[in-house]
Every structure is written in C-alpha cells, then in structure tokens.
Amino acid sequence: MKRARNFNAGPAALPLEVLQRAQNEWLNIEDSGMSVMELSHRSAEFEKIHNHAIQTLKELMEIPENYEVLLLQGGASLQFSMIPMNILKDGKRADYVLTGSWSEKALKEAKKVGETAVVASSKDDTYTYIPKVTDIEMNEDAAYLHITSNNTIYGTQWNEFPATGNVPLVADMSSDILSRKIDVSKFGIIYAGAQKNLGPSGITVVIIRKDLITDNDKIPSMLNYSIHSKNNSLYNTPPTLAIYLLSLVLDWAKEQGGVEKIAEINAEKAKAIYDIIDNSNGFYKGHALYESRSHMNVTFTLPTEEAEKQFLKEVKEAGFVGLNGHRSIGGCRASIYNAVPLSHCQELAAFMKKFQDAYMAKETQTH
Ligand SMILES: Cc1ncc(COP(=O)(O)O)c(C=O)c1O
C-alpha cells in the first residue's frame, strides 16, 4: 500500500511509526490479552498509559510544576465555554484578540458567560496578519487575555506572545501545539484539540496553571476544571483509544529529538512551499502577510478561479490529499503538521512548480 501524501487540516496525518506500533499492539496491549479499547479505564494497565501520556507531554513541553495537564473531551470548541465558565469571575472582563474564525467562535461562547471585549483584531484585513503585541489594548484588570496561537483557516501564527503581567494569557494552540518551543510559564492556560499535532480526534489537552483551578459547585461537573483535576482526568470514562494513541505520538515526538528538533524540520517544510510561492512571480499568492506566516498551514490562491480549480484537480490526481482551502474562504491550503514528512512537502513544492510552468506555457500558446 502506498501511503497518501496527506495535507489534511485535522484530523490529519499521523506518524507511520505510531500507526505501526498501534497495529503491533492492537490485539494485546501490555500483555493483558486484550486490546487497549477493552481495558477498564480503572485498570493498572490503562492508568499507566494515561499517566505516561501526561508525563511525556510535561517533559516535551517542559511544563513547570505549578501546572496541570488535563485530558478532556468536547474538543477545543468546548474549551471556548469551559474557560469563561471557570475563570471569568463576576465583575471581571475577558479580553480577546481576533485573528480568525476560531477566535471569533471562542469569543462568541465567552459572551454567553460574561463580559468580554475585543482588544485587537485583524478582521478588517481578512485576517491576513497577527496584530503587533504593542497594538493590543491591554487591560490590567482582565480575567484573562485569549489568543489563537495558530490560525488554521487563514494560515497565520503568532511569533511573539504578549507579556500580560498578572493577567493570565490563554491560548488556543490546537493547530500548533508541540510544533515549536514555547515558554509555558508565560501562559495561564494552553489548550488544544489533539487531531492535528497530538493524535486522533476525541481528546483535548488542557495545560492549566494550578492557581486558576478553583472550586465552584455551580459549574456542572463535566465542565469543571476542579473536578477533572481532582480525578486526574478520570472522572468519567475517557476515550481510552485516543489517549493511548496520544501517548504513542508523544513517544514519537521524543524520538524525533523533541520540540526543538521538530521545529527545525517544520521550518524547513514550510520554507520548501513558501519558496515556491515567493518565486512564482505572483502566480501563487500567499494569504498571510510575510511576518505572520504559519509553519503549520500554508494558505494560497492562484491567479484565477479556473487555474485554482485545475490545480486542485491535478494535485489530487497526483496523489496529494487535502489541499482545498477551508470552505469558508476557499483557495488552497497545505497543512503540514509535525507528522507530515519533509519529503511530502518537497514533493508538493515540486508539483506546484511543475503545474505553474505547464499552466503558463499553455497560456502563452493560447494567447
Ligand atoms: C485553532 C482551532 N481552534 C479550535 C478548533 C476546533 O476544534 P475542535 O473541532 O476540536 O472543537 C480548531 C479546529 O480545526 C482549530 O483549528
């Protein structure tokens, strides 16, 4: 079987080595005579896997002692509600920086819970850039400041994070967690759906500073950080298969040499594709402004709708998967998360160059 060259935005490519290991252990995990899905979530075997996932993430991201890692359900989308429900206290305001559709959605849910404000936005420029940290109207009294570190749909990424002082910085890192080195101590909460850089869908990682976890009986148990924290994220039945795969992806990340090594490869992967865009004499046009470009989602358009249609048809026929832009903005998008090999990015870059040459030759012939 030939493996697809998978540029899906999420769920996305998983490391082949992870899939192979899961295949090898499929019928018998930890010598239990069972598959991981058949283990009790209260068993010693599963608890070992669960704790290993948490511990490995702590190591990889160098998460300080005063933080907890929670493994929750409901996707990053549920965090849009859980964050304000748990940490937006009465009389306080939650501040949001709008950098794309996901931050808009996060804000929409927070508005249902309490007072909010937009303190910076690139909406007027169709989210082509990340606002400068100095342009954020910081409010020292805010309950928190929320950002989306990588904008999956528009292909922009924060390079420098705002220094928020006593205000907890909350980041949706769904599409770039573990793709580069991050100083976790700058954040109050980091959250991410697993289905891009961490594993399959069905699990959401929440890294939260311990002082932000407070008891509040009014919050339903399943939405309550304190309840999940007290139960080591085993309050109810967790998605055991997803947690197992998460643990394998984290082991794989360690084997790659950790986050810094992964970041180096990611930069090389992104450069391979951006170089083609930059050297195409405007044939390919990147959506994101240069300094806000994402290393995870490369978004671009072609000169005409017809050229774009042709490109998407031919790229698919050539065996590349998932190059269509998000349905809300169209265009093209290559999602190049950690598990997408450099060779696939280089092959896509070569395809883009070949397509441009052939398209332009045909144009010159017909005019
Ligand atoms: C940045 C970002 N935030 C949130 C979400 C929503 O995640 P979920 O589907 O896990 O709720 C996505 C999904 O693609 C995303 O890219």
Describe the structure.
The protein is of the alpha/beta class. It folds into two domains: 16-255, Aspartate Aminotransferase, domain 2, CATH 3.40.640; 259-366, Aspartate Aminotransferase, domain 1, CATH 3.90.1150.10. The chain contains nine helices and 14 strands. It has helices at residues 16-25, 44-61, 75-87, 101-111, 225-230, 240-255, 258-278, 305-317, 342-366; strands at 5-6, 67-72, 93-98, 115-121, 144-148, 150-151, 156-157, 169-172, 189-193, 204-209, 285-286, 297-301, 320-321, 332-335. Strands 2-10-9-8-5-3-4 form a seven-stranded mixed sheet, sandwiched between helices. A hairpin with a 4-residue loop joins strand 6 (150-151) and strand 7. Helix 2 packs across helix 6 (240-255) and helix 3 crosses helix 4 (101-111). The longest helix is centred in the C-terminal third of the chain and has 25 residues, at 342-366. 45% of the residues are buried. The model has no long low-confidence stretch (mean pLDDT 97). Pyridoxal-5'-phosphate binds next to helix 3.
